[in-house]
């Protein structure tokens, strides 16, 4: 997913948290995620149905501005630009917190992510994702394998991918 400029460690979305979703679609946002958001500008966050799977891509105002800027870099007549505008910006939702740090996750977003009674918040540093809790551990395990290969490449950036994988 497209990402904005890097956040400092204190304002990053880190860790994974599972929270209950009530019948009205209300969820308690993790306290450290609320702290990482600039709640002075907007008391909430922005949420986009992911194009990469059944989860939600989320972040603060910097996330949505970065997304808009990345899309705007395409030619205004490029059909890919229009597709991204419709599929991402046209589906983006501002999500406001109540006084207790809860928010209502709209039905269409819950349906996209297949979230029913529990939501898993996964910090990605500059952004975060919200997943259905059921199956989240398997998804994390799948990413862990890919991450191990990527870490080997980071340790030896000049090596071809195959050689980097042999280097443990």
Give a quick precis of the structure:
With about 170 residues, the protein is an alpha+beta fold.
Feature tags:
168 residues; alpha+beta; Chemotaxis protein chec; six-stranded antiparallel beta sheet; two-stranded antiparallel sheet; 21% strand
Structure, described:
The protein has 168 residues and is an alpha+beta fold. It has one domain: Chemotaxis protein chec. 37% of the residues lie in helices and 21% in strands. The chain is built from 6 helices and 8 strands. The strands form 2 sheets. It has a 6-stranded antiparallel β-sheet with strand order 1-7-8-4-3-5, sandwiched between helices. Strands 2-6 form a two-stranded antiparallel sheet. A hairpin with a 6-residue loop joins strand 3 and strand 4. It is globular and about 50 Å long. It starts with 15 loop residues before the first strand and ends with a helix.
Biggest sheet descriptor: 6 strands, antiparallel
Count of DSSP helices? Answer: 6
Strand portion:
15-25%
CATH superfamily: Transcriptional regulator MraZ domain
Q: What is the fold named in CATH at topology level?
A: Chemotaxis protein chec
Radius of gyration: 17 Å
Shape: globular
Which parts are unreliable, with pLDDT below 50 for 5 consecutive residues or more?
none
Q: What strand line-up does the widest sheet have?
A: 1-7-8-4-3-5
CATH class reads Alpha Beta
Number of separate domains: 1
Termini Cα gap? 28 Å
Q: Estimate the helix proportion, in percent.
A: 25-40%
Average pLDDT works out at 85
* Strands, total number: 8
Q: Which structural category fits the helices and strands?
A: alpha+beta
Question: Which architecture name does CATH use?
Answer: 3-Layer(aba) Sandwich
The ordered string of helix (H) and strand (E) elements is EEHEEHHEEHEEHH
């Amino acid at each position: 997913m497209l990402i904005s400029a890097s956040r400092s460690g204190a304002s990053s979305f880190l860790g994974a948290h599972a929270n209950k979703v009530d019948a009205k679609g209300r969820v308690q946002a993790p306290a450290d995620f609320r702290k990482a958001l600039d709640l002075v500008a907007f008391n909430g966050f922005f949420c986009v149905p992911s194009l990469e799977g059944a989860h939600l891509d989320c972040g603060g105002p910097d996330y949505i501005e970065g997304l808009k800027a990345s899309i705007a870099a395409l030619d205004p007549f490029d059909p890919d630009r229009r597709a991204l505008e419709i599929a991402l910006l046209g589906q983006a939702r501002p999500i406001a917190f109540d006084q207790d740090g809860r928010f209502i996750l709209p039905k269409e977003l819950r349906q996209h992510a297949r979230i029913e009674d529990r939501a898993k918040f996964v910090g990605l540093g500059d952004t975060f994702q919200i997943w259905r809790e059921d199956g989240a551990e398997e998804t994390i395990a799948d990413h862990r394998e890919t991450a191990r290969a990527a870490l080997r490449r980071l340790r030896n950036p000049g090596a071809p991918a195959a050689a980097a994988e042999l280097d443990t």
